[in-house]
């Protein structure tokens, strides 16, 4: 049974659901299907009139979170940059109410994101970071036919609108077993959201207050976060951090083969140690000695664990990718509220499927990678915190200067610690296996706000 079908079984209706599900874009609460197909498109508004007309044309096709499990499994999501909102003619007083980081844009926030070295905006693909991207459209579908139908709708409305330009388009999906660009099963551990109408999966923990993800509702502190004004624009919206990565799969394969023997592991065991899960999605906490694909494919079991019996990281290293991104009950050297740093993830892989045997230099030049889409009411703050503190530092887990082995920016001399008995081991020579090719901070309005924007005078 696929995750998407399992989610439909978990949907429940009760009087505690107080979210305006009919007004929230489906992508905020809707899991990416498996398998999945889709497109990311970046659009420029040549004129304010063209931008507003396109929003009016697209709005009827953007599905809400209300009863999304009953609709056809293809949907369109829309999010706008600060420059896009300006181009549409949003009043200055309203523009001023947006967070500073959003107004500055992701490229200008490189220092706060630790986007240095190969991730520096000077290396980004155009049009990312140029201020030319005004609207980002994403299409998600569970099969190729539904994807093509949704794509045809978007293309029709775009073609019929004067005063807009398609800057770029990336198709994604159709990866075997929905694996990502380095061969791992992805999208297993998203936070449960209070009021979403979906019961948490085992291991997700208590549902997090909706206000951490959707504007206009109480967050973990008991009060709503500040939101853009007027209420017609901000209510039921959220923020998005979109980041496009290129994966150096050849370098990754070479690293696994060169270092596995020295640690007494085979390449697949080392790959699991770097992430915290086997490629199948089975967590090392529940399958410490060998892969268990059946476990990895079972959403009722593959996330149902804690680190209580692994405080030293003997099973899952403290610096492993997934332990950094969701420490759970790990004892942290620097105290922080994990719940306010959770994000909704909608990752999509593009390019040809990952090949574990391809380790030549040419493999690094293959157009293959990931779009990370982070959704949160405080997406800018959370993404910058995660990038600078949890991904590219390790003080919070007592690992000093070590960096995330999968998405961290590596420097010569940095290490990765493998806790072992009687003596820990340190791996050297890590490379930046996923290099940033571009990104944008975006605002994902509610359906009513899209209508409000389309009718601006």
UniProtKB/TrEMBL annotation:
Iron among keywords: yes
InterPro entries given in the database record: Dimeric_a/b-barrel, DyP_N, Dyp_peroxidase
Domain DyP dimeric alpha+beta barrel: 71-156
Comp. bias intervals (Basic and acidic residues): 289-301
Pfam families, sorted: DyP_N (PF21105)
Stored PROSITE patterns: DYP_PEROXIDASE
Keyword Metal-binding: yes
Region (Disordered): 283-310
Cofactor(s) needed: heme b
Keywords on record: Iron, Metal-binding, Oxidoreductase, Peroxidase
PANTHER family for the chain: BLR4509 PROTEIN, DEFERROCHELATASE/PEROXIDASE
Stated name of the protein: DyP dimeric alpha+beta barrel domain-containing protein
Organism listed in the record: Deinococcus xinjiangensis
Lineage per the UniProt record: Bacteria, Thermotogati, Deinococcota, Deinococci, Deinococcales
